[in-house]
User: Fold these one by one.
Assistant:
Number 1:
Amino acid sequence: MQVLIVDNNDQIRRYLNELLSREGFETVQAENGADCLEKYKAKKPDFICLDIVMPDMSGYDVCKEIRKTDATTPIIFISTKSEPLDKVMGLEMGADDYIIKPFDNYEVIARIRAVARRCYMKQAPEKVADCFNMADLEIYPKKLIAMRGETTIELSLRDIKLLKLLFDKAGEIVDRDTILDECWGAHIMPESRTLDWHVSQLRKRIEKDPKAPEIIKTVHGVGYKYEAKS
């Protein structure tokens, strides 16, 4: 799933890129309105994070231009403009959400996950499993959540990719390179400890006992595996 990040502030673009990449999204960046429209036409992103105050054309104008031919690609305004009227204008122009800078990381991720769920449903939904089980965990890819009894566990797109890969290869050892290629992308070269850190954090959320995992088991020196119980 690809996100177009549009902001004339290089630091904000890098920051959003880091947040989104960590969640498992591919990103494309644009530094102004014209650049955004050019990359939107070339890349056809799944959704857009769009600043409003830019030097060449406003985010409002960019949104109106996109909405002339595309009424469905989600657009999230991320702006310093914080007056209620600004938000109303943005939403009336066809934006799906409006986030005010400076923003809270958790708020941005929650809003983006909500948009991602809608995008995920549109991407050949018949090919995306409604649910699969790993141990006592029920995983719902289309909702980006897992359930253990009555407890809901929020998952990122990358979490889903990793769990589905291990589920599809249940009983097999999945080596580190395969996981990185499938879940991070062959064009991305994460730091050597990136995968281990991600698995460690995911275990804290999905395993009943992270120190004795039942879902994501380590195969030292090789990778990870899931063993389905018969």
Number 2:
Amino acid sequence: MLAAAAALVLIAGPGPSVNGGLASLHGAEIALVAVSVLAAALAVATVQLWVDRRRLKRELEEQIAARTPPGLPRGTPAPEFELAPIRGTAGSLRELTEPARPTVLVFLSTACGPCLAMLPSLARWQDSLAESVTLAALFSGEREDVERLSEDHELRVALAQDDTGTFELYRLRATPTAVLLDADRLIAGAPAEGPPAIEALVRTAVAGSGPSELVIERV
């Protein structure tokens, strides 16, 4: 629009001054100018309202998400998934939960400091609790990093997520986070966020699996 106006000026010349041009306008022309100015002002106001509406909607969604507790409700069937097994042979939820015992899904990221710090403890838990609880590490991140970390820490059960789809299915918000499933593959409680809460969740899983003399080492 500005280029067209500039071309018009170059072709027709500068024309009369603004004051002179307005003075020469008649009633209909004045009304047309007034309507045009009003339309431009309304267009600017509409754009501003649209921008403000999108901003307010985004802020409202963020506030709702912050107030909504993470995880699926207790008693909800655990969402099925099919991931790449990095350590162990189980790649799906059905395969992980074939033994009728509690299952703990530990969601980790290769770029998460607390996740990396708890890997030695997670490996020990997998070894010592192998007969009573299924502990599966579900990694997000580059495949080669998942493979290296799983090998370095000798994890018994590790799976790789190609994206965050499984993480989102379980409605989680941070890593590391663990989710406890009962023997019927139902969500057994709220997710545990952070190593201390995950340790407490594993203790709960051990207690629910029956008598055990195994001791969980702290992170």
Number 3:
Amino acid sequence: MRKLFAFCALAGITVALAPQVLNAAESQCPLGTATLKGTYVVSGTGMVVGVGSVTAVGLHTWDGQGKTVAAYTLSVNGNIYRGVTVTGSYSVNPDCTGSLTESDGSHYDFVVLPDGNKATWIRTDAGTVVSGTEVRLKPPQDNE
């Protein structure tokens, strides 16, 4: 009888705690959009169908409130474009996945580390095969 009681008690505790464990696993980025804040070194490479190979490197600043600006140098089939600047809007989910839409109409999905120091992204527009990473260069200041 004691074994049955102990088993039932353990089963009850397990069932009661399961939602909390699942929520904790899903809340790796409890700051949400504020997880990405500061200035990051961004680089990416790939190709655009009908255009050719593309590579970019530059700085990407996230405001922690859903707005962003990127300034970079772009190579398209060996043609260099300096001073490219695009703005965008983004969001970060509790599981550290997120999405970005830039003012030029491009779309990205990304995963950010819980501390916000690094993100890996992929462009999700048809006809593109472009991906890259971002690493925080400058942490956000309290007054930013």
